[in-house]
């Protein structure tokens, strides 16, 4: 898990790259989702059933986005969270593509597409951040019982 000051410090560092620079650091699937606002098939990603404690970060820039403590099984096939790690971790944008009205979720640090948020989630927020698995990387909670060398 990240400490509050670590999250705040990362959120302040904006990441800007050209399309060619993004192509060099992202897989073709990551590029399709993060840069072209694509979606992967449901139940296809590595974190659908992930239950370990940790933090989900942006696959594009490493910005901490969601805590495993806010993850829940929505049955949608994509990881769902009822809140982000901080109000400044993600940005919400109107999305009227594909003949629908939705709210797009993008990384506040690099502006990359993560998924969408819906108003049908559990308490306490009532939100369901439905994220593309390819847009996230998981960082396990550090074992705090280890002794320092």
Order of helices and strands: HHHEEEEEEEEE
> Mind summarizing the main beta sheet?
6 strands, antiparallel
Category from helices, strands and their pairing: alpha+beta
Q: Please give the number of β-strands.
A: 9
Helix % is 10-25%
Shape: globular
Q: How much of the sequence is in beta strands?
A: 25-35%
Average pLDDT, to the nearest integer?
82
Q: Radius of gyration from the CA trace?
A: 15 Å
- Number of helical stretches of at least 4 residues: 3
Contiguous uncertain segments of 5+ residues: 1-11, 143-149
Spatial arrangement of strands, main beta sheet: 3-4-8-7-6-5
End-to-end separation: 21 Å
Write the layout of secondary structure elements.
Blueprint: H1 4-12, H2 19-25, H3 28-34, E1 54-58, E2 64-67, E3 71-72, E4 80-81, E5 90-95, E6 102-107, E7 113-118, E8 128-131, E9 136-140
Antiparallel strand pairs: 1-2, 1-9, 3-4, 4-8, 5-6, 6-7, 7-8
Description:
A hairpin with a 6-residue loop joins strand 5 and strand 6. The chain is 15% helix and 27% strand. The protein is α+β, with helices and mostly antiparallel strands and 149 residues long.
């Amino acid at each position: 898990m990240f400490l509050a000051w670590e999250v705040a410090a990362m959120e302040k560092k904006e990441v800007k790259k050209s399309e060619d620079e993004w192509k060099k650091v992202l897989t073709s699937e990551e590029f399709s989702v993060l840069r072209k606002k694509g979606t992967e098939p449901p139940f296809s990603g590595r974190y659908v059933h992930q239950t370990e404690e940790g933090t989900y970060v942006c696959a594009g820039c490493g910005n901490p986005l969601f805590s495993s403590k806010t993850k829940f099984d929505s049955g949608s096939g994509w990881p769902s969270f009822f809140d982000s790690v901080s109000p400044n971790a993600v940005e919400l944008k109107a999305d009227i593509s594909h003949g629908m009205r939705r709210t797009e979720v993008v990384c506040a640090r690099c502006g990359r597409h993560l998924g969408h948020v819906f108003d049908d989630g559990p308490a306490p927020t009532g939100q369901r951040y439905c994220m593309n698995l390819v847009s996230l990387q998981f960082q396990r909670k550090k074992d705090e019982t280890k002794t320092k060398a």
